[in-house]
Amino acid sequence: METNKPDRILSIPNLFSLSRVFLVPVFLYAMIHGRTQMAFIVFLVSALTDFLDGASARLLNQKTKLGALLDPFGDKMFMTGAFIILTIPSLSSPNVLPLWLTAIVIGRDVLIVGGALILYFLIQKKSFPPTLTGKGSTVWQFSVLLLVLLFNMLGKEAGFLFWCYIGAGILTVISGYEYVQRGREWLRSAPPKG
Q: Do 69 and 19 reside in the same domain of the chain?
């Protein structure tokens, strides 16, 4: 999302992204205090702000470098917080995310951020477009969180969620592998420093 326009901190898309960041503690509060309906609603509102920040940036032509950082930062904060808290049995009932899935999701994100930093310092790579599998794994992860929150709000155990966890884990691993391969290709094709 490169732009020649000066960054406007208080642009509408940036406000949507910031609101998602501020919703993280509200979501965590609701989960810690067993307010499953509130947690589910806050999660849906967060998803709505994610849609609105991108749509408003395009419609209002307000794409900024700050927004390009705030949007994924808000996403990752919310998703990471949700994955961690829904893995704690005392806070997520009756459906609990398996620890292995949360470890895979967070591990992949750490790998991507670490790889991006390495690429930036080694070859000054600044743009990291997502892969199709990366987008797919994010949608699957979001769907898993939504379903767990929904069935916990309803107080119903959902056995089929196990297969959703498997699908999310497989897609996340594949996308992580693709990002590693893409990073290696960028390194190989970078012009030598002279």
A: yes
Q: 117 is written with which tokens? A: 């930093």
Domain tally for the chain?
Answer: 2
Structural domain that includes position 162: 94-194
- pLDDT tens digits for 12-26? 877 888 888 899 999
Q: What is the pLDDT of residues 74-115, one digit of tens each?
A: 888 999 999 999 999 999 999 999 999 999 999 999 999 898
Question: Can you read off the two tokens belonging to residue 189?
Answer: 């094709």
Task: Give the residue from 85, 111, 142 where a domain finishes.
Answer: 85
Phi, psi of 55 (to 5 degrees): -65, -45
Residue 131 three-state SS: coil
Under 8 Å CB-to-CB from 155, ≥6 apart: which residues?
A: 94
* In the chain, % of residues over pLDDT 90: 58
3-class secondary structure, 182: helix
Statement: the pTM of the whole predicted model exceeds 0.90: no
CB-CB contact of 131 with 194 (8 Å): no
